[in-house]
Design a protein that fits this description.
The chain is of the alpha+beta class. It has one domain: Alpha-Beta Plaits (2-Layer Sandwich), CATH 3.30.70. The protein contains four helices and six strands. A four-stranded antiparallel beta sheet has the order 1-2-6-3. Strands 4-5 form a two-stranded antiparallel ribbon.
Length: about 100
């Protein structure tokens, strides 16, 4: 857990915004031991790894980051966009697991 000591704990608590719950994320969690999170736009892979290890007390093997483009939406004649966001696929070490119901 040396990655946790490099960063301030208060900053790490603001890196991970929310888990992404969808059909694809539950399939990936069951098959590959990966969990999907919505993270800050300026978060880096080491920050995400340290934040997950700090928040859920687990060992993280790998982090894959993906920028999601906001969808085009129309409001009558006006067209707009949802905002862009960043998604992180976090692979846990063998035997590790995140139970969202048990965490605060």
């Amino acid at each position: 857990m040396t990655a946790v000591k490099k960063y301030n704990a208060e900053q790490l608590m603001n890196v991970v915004l929310a888990p992404v719950v969808s059909e694809k994320s539950t399939f990936v969690a069951d098959k590959n031991r990966q969990y999907v999170f919505r993270v800050c736009d300026d978060a880096t892979k080491p920050q995400i790894k340290a934040a997950i290890e700090l928040m859920f007390k687990t060992k993280v093997d790998d982090v894959t980051v993906l920028n999601v483009r906001g969808k085009e939406r129309r409001f009558g004649r006006l067209s707009g966009r949802r905002r862009n966001w960043k998604k992180a696929y976090v692979r846990l070490a063998e035997g590790q697991e995140i139970n969202f119901a048990a965490t605060e």
